[in-house]
Specification:
The complex is a heterodimer of chains A (251) and B (202). Chain A has 251 residues and is an alpha/beta fold. Chain A is 36% helix and 28% strand. With 202 residues, chain B is α/β, with parallel strands linked by helices. Chain B has a single domain (5-200), classed as Class I glutamine amidotransferase (GATase) domain (Rossmann fold), CATH 3.40.50.880. Classes of the chains: A alpha/beta (251), B alpha/beta (202).
Chain lengths: 251, 202
């Protein structure tokens, strides 16, 4: 029915207010630009969604900066997902009022209160709740981390995403601490394991250094969406080029 | 020419009312967000948005005194339900138990049953049935943004269909001047604005 690729292409903005930054292995931040301007640029290039993550909010134990979120959302007529430092339903309410369509959450539900996922799904519908994963590989699987890959959780990724799905998460954003920002390709085994493990949509992230990286991963994993950051920020590809390549590859 | 006036109904649910307001304004409407049932009758046109679950939304509608005023208002002026808002216009819903809807349109709201991932999320083209006013001037190749786990099962007022995996479902309804869309026109780029403009200019 659809002429385009069925796979959503999401522009991911990692934000350390007031700038979009790009961490490498979730550390060593580089300043990229203004969130509202970049969101607008990627929207105009054809992004199916914009994902805004305040990567230091949890670390600093503060909320996402709501005025920033509002400034970004006001220019977009595509879905806008926001995450960073979300700890309770009231935090989510404020983000929705600021123009968010979905909430991405990792630290608080992983480390402190998984029940918040149940409560959020009941209140806002599961389609509005994205569980974000920061996976780090170990000898026989992957462990969930939080706070930009700094804090261990002791939880295995596959068991946790399955629990998150049961609790009502509507999507899972899979980021890899090992691959993020390195531009050397995705952790395909991780993505395949998550895709096999859950029935909710899977957003593949972390590691795209070229259009070929995305196409190769997409052919192997068949994720429901791919989130890219460095690829766009460093001008290695536009969203339009990426989408055209996915369509060409029949994905 | 003065802009057509549209009231966005805030029944007390948290939602993306800010997005809907902006999109309606981009479509040329003058927008008021109303949060009291007595404001309904002053509105030229109504938009009923909604995110959340059917049961919680109907509970709000019932406890805050919206039920009868909203029913009455919805059948007496052009009304557009978006996503959960379209579902609420239906007769009955089965999300978190069975609850009665506004029953402005026939239909049952049921969980989508298919092999493809649920929730159904993403941009999809739709196939119109007949010549629905909302889709006037919009090419069939245009895509709209979906984000839902439940669908309205209706056989009598279908304005457009969509597919998820191999599952076909109703994605737009029209009966007289009551309209519903399962997708989010406020999140569907220019095609969504064009659809809202068709509603605003009715």
């Amino acid at each position: 029915m659809s002429a385009g690729s069925g796979m959503r292409v999401i522009a991911k903005l990692d934000v350390k207010p007031p700038f979009v930054v790009k961490p490498i292995h979730f550390e060593g931040l580089r300043k990229i630009g203004d969130p509202a301007q970049l969101a607008r640029r990627y929207y105009e290039q054809g992004a199916d969604e914009i994902l805004y993550i305040d990567i230091v909010a949890s670390l600093y134990q503060r909320n996402v900066l709501f005025d920033q979120v509002e400034a970004v959302s006001s220019q977009l007529f595509v879905p806008f997902a926001v995450g960073g430092g979300v700890r309770c339903i009231d935090d989510m309410v404020r983000l929705f009022h600021g123009g968010a369509d979905k909430i991405a959450i990792n630290t608080h539900v992983l480390q402190h209160n998984p029940e918040l996922l149940d409560e959020a799904a009941r209140t806002f519908g599961c389609q509005a709740v994205v569980v974000a994963i920061e996976a780090k590989r170990h000898s026989h699987g992957w462990e969930c981390y939080s706070d930009c890959g700094r804090e261990r959780s002791g939880k295995e990724v596959i068991a946790w995403v399955q629990e998150a799905e049961r609790r009502g998460a509507g999507e899972v954003l899979v980021q890899s601490v090992d691959c993020d920002g390195r531009r050397q390709g995705f952790d395909v085994a991780l993505l395949q394991a998550v895709k096999r493990g859950v029935g909710i949509p899977v957003i593949a992230a972390s590691g795209a250094g070229s259009i070929a990286d995305v196409v190769t991963m997409a052919a192997q994993v068949r994720p429901d969406a791919v989130a890219v950051a460095s690829l766009l920020h460093y001008g290695l590809a536009s969203i339009a080029e990426l989408k055209a390549a996915l369509v060409e590859a029949g994905l | 020419m003065s802009a057509a006036s549209v009231a966005v109904v805030d029944v007390g649910l948290v939602g993306n009312i800010a997005s809907i307001r902006r999109a309606l304004e981009a479509a040329g409407a003058h927008v008021d967000v109303i949060d009291r049932p007595d404001q309904l009758l002053q509105a030229d046109k109504l938009v009923l948005p909604g995110v959340g679950s059917f049961a919680e939304a109907m509970a709000e509608i019932n406890t805050r005194g919206w039920l009868e005023p909203l029913r009455l208002a919805a059948v007496s002026r052009p009304t557009l339900g978006i996503c959960l808002g379209m579902q609420l216009l239906s007769r009955i819903g089965f999300e978190f138990g069975e609850s009665e809807g506004l029953a402005v349109l026939d239909g049952e709201v049921r969980r989508m049953e298919c092999k493809a991932p649920i929730p159904h999320i993403g941009f999809k083209a739709v196939t119109t049935v007949g010549k629905p006013e909302l889709f006037r001037g919009i090419a069939e190749s245009e895509e709209f943004y979906f984000m839902h786990s439940y669908e309205v099962v209706n056989y009598t007022d279908v304005a457009a269909l969509c597919e998820h995996g191999s599952h076909r479902f109703v994605c737009a309804l029209q009966r007289d001047q009551v309209f519903g869309v399962q997708f989010h026109p406020e999140k569907s780029r220019d095609a969504g604005i064009a659809l809202l403009r068709n509603f605003v200019e009715l």
